[in-house]
Design goal:
mainly alpha; about 60 residues; about 50% helix; CopG family transcriptional regulator
Length: about 60
């Protein structure tokens, strides 16, 4: 049986951790940290794919 979610570990910089904490306190106050991170990743991927000249290839 295939799992719906897969665990990934990241190590954010201090600056990024502060921005994530601010996002959690603001827009994502009613969400779990996992939900917040999944939403931010999806939004980033969509923005990246929407850029002119991008075909979805990895960096």
């Amino acid at each position: 049986m295939e799992q719906e979610h897969r665990r990934i570990t990241i190590s954010p910089s201090r600056e990024m951790a502060l921005e994530l904490a601010a996002a959690k306190d603001g827009r994502y106050a009613d969400s779990t940290q996992g939900e917040m991170l999944r939403d931010l990743i999806i939004r980033g991927l969509r923005a990246w794919k929407a850029q002119p000249g991008q075909s979805g290839e990895a960096m």
